Amino acid sequence: MQSDTAQVAFPPGVRSLPLRLQGLAVATACGALLVAAWSLSPQAGGTGTHVQMGLPGCSFLARTGYPCPSCGLTTSVSAAAHGQWGLSLSAQPFGLVLFVAAVGGALLGAAQAVTAQPLLRRLKLSRRWVWAAGLAMFAGWGVKLATGLADGSLPLR
Question: Residue 147: in which H helix or E strand, if any?
Fold first, then answer.
């Protein structure tokens, strides 16, 4: 007895194409972030590296003398890309976390693109990850503020 539904036979590799493209997209995005970070020269002061990309300086820092939550992220990621771990941590601790995540994303995405295995899906990304990242960034900002107040480097004069 034959079924009314016909089964379509896909050519080898067709089902793996979306997985490969997803992996390629993630690897490319993370790789681009890492190349951009490596191409910049991290500023020893802990902020201002983003100005090399033609972006304006932080108006919050200029007006208040205190860094905004994202101050130092570009410097931190760039410093990590150059192996300057101390500068990376002092500029914005979350930047080092972001750097490690970008390296992991590039490697995992490339592996998925090559093997067509659902490696990225195994991360089970959810809103919790976004909240955790946001909280980690604000925690890094808190560390930066506390350190600056303790050593007298904040507020900027």
Answer: helix 127-151
